[in-house]
Design goal:
mainly alpha; about 375 residues; about 0% strand
Length: about 375
Amino acid sequence: MIPQQRIRSLDALRGFALLGICIVNLPLFARNWESFYLPPQDTVARVGILINSGFFDGKFFPVFSFLFGAGMFFLLRDNRLAVVIRRLLALAVLGVAHGLLLFTGDILVSYALLGFLFLTLRHRSARTLIFIAGLGLLLSGAAYFILGLASQTPPAIPQTNYLGNYADVLRSNVHTYPLSLVFVALYNVPAAFAMFCLGYLSLREGWFQKLRAGRITPLLLTVGLAGNLFYAATVAFHQKQLMPFSMLALAWTAPLLSAAYVQLFFSWVHSGAAAFLVRWLAAAGEMSLTNYLMQSLIAGILFHGYGFGLYNRYSMGGLLFFSLAIFTAQLFFSNLWLRYFHSGPAEWLLRGFARLRFTALRR
């Protein structure tokens, strides 16, 4: 059995990863696609791109994917296979609704589909799953190189109107959803599946207890930062001719930096420092699905026409502060919510559907 404090540390890591996801996703709400193919307008915008690309972009979805694989271990250990299948089905439906109604960059559908694929591999040996993970990272490099080549000429993007009413936003989402699915498939799927396998193995094989900073951490940081800063500089200084190679560097060094983040985070958690902050992060992580969906809802209200209409008004630098504000609000909300309820509303619905039985939500 995995000790209870280990589960809380996983929740805390989920909470921390929510910040990275918010920072990466918010520009996709706040700016049109064409702006990502243009040079930054000023120094603040360039610094924002350097921070986002160098330390967040591509670094936090591997962490979430790792945690999804770890979660699969607990699901399969504690539930019948039929319950897990229903849970993945519900996640896929929720992902389609999220993608069409709020955010076309949704990852829940791909996670659900990869979860079904993983069910066929769950009994494989550690060696086999490590081989599959390595293959996933190799394929991720190829996919990122293709994306880098494609970035030389901006794709034909369907007409959108995110400053109109909600009907206009919905039509825009419907038009761009197919293109977003292709992008997510290339950008997320191979690397995500690799991290699923490693997250599952970390619990099944007992590696989780060793996930702390050690002798390999400086190497992970050095190589990870070198590759990711090369990618960040290419984006920030608009070196389009280098994009295929910088994207390849991102594909193969972002997971290394993610691994360093995880090791340093667990070392910090188990040092006992700032225990109150760990508790707050764990509460946000316990409600990670609710908070992920809520980030999309808040971002839509802030930036789209049916809300405050701040679309295209802020550069990447300004959006960093919005991300921090949203994440801080979620920390307060999660801790307040869990004083009165057992779980987040999205988690409660997903669990109830999977088990065909809804228990009381209120404590």
